[in-house]
Amino acid sequence: MQRPVSVPISVARLPRVARAGLGGLLSVVLSGGCHFAPPANVKNLQKGIERYLAEHPDCLYKQALRFPYETSSKPEIAQLDTLVNAKLLERGTEPAIHVSRYSVSDYGAKSAPRFCYGYREVTSIESFTAPAKGSDGFIESQVTYNYKLRDVPVWAKDADVEKMFSDEAKELTSAAPATLTLAQTGAGWQVPE
Fold first, then answer.
1. 66-119 confidence digits (pLDDT tens)
2. What's the domain range around 135?
3. Other beta carbons within 10 Å of 128
C-alpha cells in the first residue's frame, strides 16, 4: 500500500487575493468564529418568539403541583374540585386531619402537573422598540405580538373550568396583544430566561 504524498504549499506562491482570503479565514478561526447578530425585523423577532412559545405552553398553574396533593383551603378545594369534575383529578378525603387529597386521573395524566391548555401561535407582530442595550448588557427589543392558542384540550373549554380559572379563560378568547422582551444573540433573537 502506498502512502499518500503530501505536497507542501507555499503561501507565498498563492495569488494575492487567495492570500488575503486565507488570512481572513485564519483570523476568523483563531478568534473563535463568526459572531453574526441578526437585525431587528418582523421576521427575525417572530422567529425568536415562536421558538420560545414552542417550549412554554400556557397552563393553569405556573408551578407544578406535587401529587398526591393535600389541602384544606376552601378556595383551592373549589378550584381542584372543578378539575375533578373535568375528570383530570380524583379526590379523596382525610376526615381525621380535615384535608382533601387529590391525585391525577388517567385522563389528567397528559395535562398534569401544571394542566397546560395550549400553545400560543404568533399571528402577527404589532410593533417593536428600537434595539437598545438592556440592564444585562444585551441589545434588547420589546415586541408586541398577536396570537391565537392552538392544541387547546376539550377540558379547557368546559364552562365550569373557564368560570373557576377566569384569567386563563380570557387567554382562550382574548384578542389582546401580548408583549415579550427579546435579546439579540449570535444565535438569533431570544427571550432571556
1. 999 999 999 999 999 999 999 999 999 888 888 999 999 999 999 999 999 999
2. 37-58+117-193
3. 20
Q: Are residues 46 and 124 in the same domain?
A: yes
Q: What pLDDT digit, counting tens, does each position of 140-160 carry?
A: 999 999 999 888 999 999 999
Start-to-end CA span in the chain (Å): 57
Judge if 77 and 50 occupy the same domain.
no
d(CA 60, CA 160): 14
Q: For residues 168 and 117, is the Cβ–Cβ distance under 8 A? A: yes
Residues 47 and 127 in one domain: yes
- State how many domains the chain has: 2
Distances (CA, A) of 49 to 1, 27, 56: 57, 34, 10
